[in-house]
Amino acid sequence: MKVRNGILRGNLKVKGGKLIKCTVKLKEGRIEEIKISGDFFMHPEEKIEEIEKALKGMEFKKEGIEGKLNEILKDVELIGIDKEDFLEVIFSSKISNSS
Amino acid sequence: MQFRLIIDGYRNAFENMALDEAMLLNGIPTLRLYKWRPSAISIGYFQSMEEEVNLEECKKQGIDVVRRITGGGAVYHDEKGEITYSFVCAENFLPKNILESYKLICSSLANALRILGIEAEHAGINDIVVNKRKISGSAQTRKRGKVLQHGTLLLRVDVKKMFSLLKVGNEKISDKEIKAVEERVTSVERELGRIDEEEIIDALIRGFKKTMKIEFYEDGFEKNELKMAEELRRKYESKEWNFKR
Questions:
Q1: What's the angle, vertex CA B109, arms to CA B134 and CA B23, rounded to 5?
Q2: What's the pTM value of the predicted model, to 2 decimals?
């Protein structure tokens, strides 16, 4: 059953790299809020806030989100994680009861 | 090339992070060596304070907590257990590739340790290891054509204390797990059997000189750096910054 409401949490340890985590708050199948965290490196750092802002309100579907991520991550340098890991951690996240 | 050398001694976490950022914004090529009092935890720019740090325990033990402007992981900076460095230069002084630039700066640290007689080497992205045991970790950021890299050099380690302050898992960490981590970290004390700060600082200076092919002149902060740092300190003390994720 597809989750449309609630809080999802994801956790991805990149092999030979760093850790990326996310918390997604879903409301009626859309992202109400998303936080991405971890011990990776990203230059410039502030792009993370841009990603979180841009994903807000989007439908929780791979296609649209993938496009948005690619757009923002285009000129971003990542160390310890890859671009694809953002998508993976977001869509491997599972419903969590504790908020 | 001439670099400023600041041998800075103790400051609290908020001043330390504010001064590193002020140095980056000001952009004078600098190596700064410093310590933390009170002991503190710094977390990486992208980390969640609540997920990484046992705040209750920090409060109980009088440990400050601060978010860095650099990425990377959470670090416990012990008052008596660490010398921290920060290195600022122009981007074009370093290899354009960020991984390569980590390698160069980290090699300066590894060479400093070798001067002390410790067989250290750069490993992974941002670590220095001795026989596969971590002795130093670093983090870098770039702004307005300038680079800041800061990092630790462990003088002595108290893994048990470190784990009481950091959230390493859901369960309370067992003695066996502490032992396992103790096997993966090391310190100057463990490798050399002594901590002579003057000797270590001297080795660090020589390590950077030799590896980066630079010279040093000893100096302090500029007035405008201190002014900037005073303003930045407020950010680093704020809940808004420290708990923003």
A1: 110
A2: 0.94
